[in-house]
Amino acid sequence: MKKLTLLAATVLISSTLCAQYSETGQDKNYISTGLPILLIAPDGVSSGMGDVGAATRPDAYSAHWNNAKFAFIEDAAGASTTYTPWLRNLKVSDMNLLYLAGYYRINDRSTAAFSLTYFSLGDIEMTDYEANKLTTLHPNEFAIDATYALKLSDNFSLGATGRFMRSDLTNGQTLSGDGSGNTPTHAANSIAADIGVYYQQAIDRQQEFALGAFISNLGAKLSYSDEDNDKEFLPTNLRIGGRYTNRIDDYNKISVMLDANKLLVPTPPLREDTEGWVDYNNIGVISGALKSFGDAPGGFSEELQEVQLSVGAEYWYAETFAVRAGYFYEHANKGGRQYATIGVGLRYSYFSGDFSYLIPTTTISTNPLSNTIRISIGLDLKPTK
């Protein structure tokens, strides 16, 4: 258990989720949001392919990547869970991310699903500035959602999700200010919605392509106090991607995928622009999403820097054994996360197991999942004939 002041603990939490310093230590113009865990790959499948997911094969984790894919899922029902250790590279042993998901195919055209994300930040010992112990915090965050997906045609589907979120980082502690007094805090609650579209089409008996687009976490800002200017945007995100699959023969199949992501959150102005920070805090959710396509202080070139790219590939043998690889790229000025991933998957009868491993390829930022194995276990029930 680390002895940290509450301020230091908060910095630890945010910095490990979104890198913010370059090699020279200079502040970058990254986009910060509340509940960034909502963007973390929750499964051992897509996380083994560079975090692609907009148009990957439908599975129990589709609520995170593109909810519209559920309408094309082939099994009658299923459930999966993933355990992800956090900050193991920094010798932190009690921070973990747990994800639980399930789905039920109502009929040939519609599917209902749910998922739960739970992030435990372990035990944090709160001290004063003289290192005297005050109390022990047990911060945690969670999100629970429900999804409905519908086929509008034999090739096209639409998905909608409602989500409730709660972030409790301070356990209701009162924070000491900078001379302006103490600030009572509380857990931050919010609701949000996702909407996705998905299209898949067979080229011939061996080949298939798919396209997907997904807007996630569009909802009310988070507030940990009653201060009007102390609210954080949710990580509203636009994901667009495609997939190409070639069934080489009855035993061998390969797929390649590409995703592009952009946060639909306004870009902060430069730190020295104090008046700009006030304007940033007062921007509404919808207005911020619309402005996010053209508000970067550096112009169009900086807007392009805000696009994250993922590329992945997957090979299946006899629909039983899979090998995966991928790469994720984020510009150094917007966080600098750049890493390769590898993974394997197994299917036997109703059961599945998936494993992934993240390999950082840059020293600009510290990724909290560096050298981490993610493990997913699933159960899928075949439709009755």
Summed up:
10% of the residues lie in helices and 46% in strands. With 385 residues, it is mainly beta.
What would your notes on this structure say?
The chain is globular and about 70 Å long. The longest helix is centred in the first third of the chain and has 12 residues, at 6-17. The chain has helices at 6-17, 62-65, 274-282, 285-291, 300-305; strands at residues 2-4, 77-85, 96-105, 110-120, 124-127, 133-137, 140-151, 156-168, 174-176, 182-184, 188-202, 207-219, 222-223, 231-232, 237-247, 252-263, 308-317, 321-329, 338-348, 351-360, 373-381. 39% of the residues are buried. It has a 14-stranded antiparallel β-barrel with strand order 2-3-4-7-8-11-12-15-16-17-18-19-20-21. Mean pLDDT is 84; it is low at 1-26. By secondary structure, the chain is mainly beta.
List the uncertain runs. Answer: 1-26
- Count of helical regions: 5
Share of residues in strands: over 45%
Structural class: mainly beta
| Order of secondary-structure elements | EHHEEEEEEEEEEEEEEEHHHEEEEE
Q: What's the helical proportion of residues?
A: under 10%
Number of strands: 21
The largest sheet is:
14 strands, antiparallel, barrel
Quaternary organisation of the protein chains: single chain
- Work out the count of structural domains: 1
**Average pLDDT across residues?**
84
Q: CATH class, anyone?
A: Mainly Beta
N-end to C-end Cα span: 54 Å
CATH topology: Porin
Shape: globular
Biggest sheet, spatial arrangement of strands: 2-3-4-7-8-11-12-15-16-17-18-19-20-21
